[in-house]
Amino acid sequence: MARMSPEPSKWAHIIAADPDHSRRYIQRFKMMAAAGHDLEGEARTIDAMVQPGSRILDAGCGPGRHGGALHARGHVVVGVDLDPTLIAAAEEDYPGPTWVVQDLAELDLPAKGIEAGFDAILCAGNVMGFLAPSTRVEVLRRLRDHLAPEGRAVIGFGAGRGYDFDEFFADAASAGLQVELKLSTWDLRPFAPDSDFLVAVLSRA
Questions:
Q1: Contact status, residue 205 vs residue 176, Cβ threshold 8 Å
Q2: Is 117 left (phi over 0), alpha (psi -120 to 50) or beta?
Q3: Cβ distance 157 to 163 under 8 Å?
Q4: What backbone phi and psi angles, to 5 degrees, belong to 20?
Q5: pTM of the shown model
Q6: Closest by alpha carbon to 144, among 82, 200, 100?
Q7: Beta strands of 40-85 (E only): which ranges?
Q8: In this structure, what are the phi and psi dihedrals at residue 186, rounded to the nearest 5 degrees?
Q9: How many Å separate Cα 33 from the centre of its chain?
Q10: Residue pLDDT, tens place only, 153-188
Q11: Which are the contacts of 38, defined by CB distance < 8 A and separation ≥ 6?
Q12: CA 134: distance to chain centroid?
């Protein structure tokens, strides 16, 4: 029996409807960087959590700014995104990390000859809000499977994107992940019931 493909993500639907969307997305962040905006807060947080030279997976890496920043800090970085336009931009702008086109709902880096067992997994940029609801637990399970035994996944996304925080916590538990820490910003401010952003630090249950 043929294996069924996962439900396409919201991002896949967006780029199917508007093929130029990815190029505009890339350009927006280049303009922000040129204007002096701080775009490395997520990378600094991950860097502070791991030992020098750690293996880090940037899940939903987009055009590579987080993975590129972590590579510049001396880490061994693999970035994965389903959008080949974004991966091509990452390869051009941030040589050094390994960049892979793959849907997170089908994440299987060992099948591509890349060892799992990452010391940290970063999933930023509201990636979770772009997932198809039917794939959320599977994505979290696959992230868990790519963690080292003592590794941690750090997932950040905003409220109002169709994925309730309590639902996310329940899905994480179903995927075999436990929440170690809840924050409301990448600069480590505490999470509260009315927080409009979540940064969750998770480990293998």
A1: yes
A2: left
A3: yes
A4: -85, -5
A5: 0.95
A6: 200
A7: 55-59, 76-81
A8: -75, -10
A9: 20
A10: 999 999 998 999 999 999 999 999 999 999 999 999
A11: none
A12: 18
Instruction: Render pLDDT for 13-51 as a digit per residue (tens, 0 to 9).
Output: 999 999 899 999 999 999 999 999 999 999 999 999 999
Per DSSP (E only), the strands in the chain are 55-59, 76-81, 98-101, 118-123, 147-158, 177-183, 197-204
User: Residue 163 in 3-state DSSP?
Assistant: coil
Helices 84-93 and 65-72, packing angle to 10 deg: 30
Q: Where are the alpha helices (DSSP H) in 56-115?
A: 65-72, 84-93
The two three-digit tokens of residue 46, written as one number: 């991950």
* Single-letter amino acid code for the residue at 119: D
| 67: its two tokens | 């993975």
With bands split at pLDDT 50, 70 and 90, how would you rate the model's confidence at 119? very high
Calculate the average pLDDT of the chain. Answer: 96
Rounded to 5 degrees, φ, ψ at 119 are -70, -30
Burial 171-186 (b: 16+ CB within 10 A, else e): bbeebbbeeeebbbeb
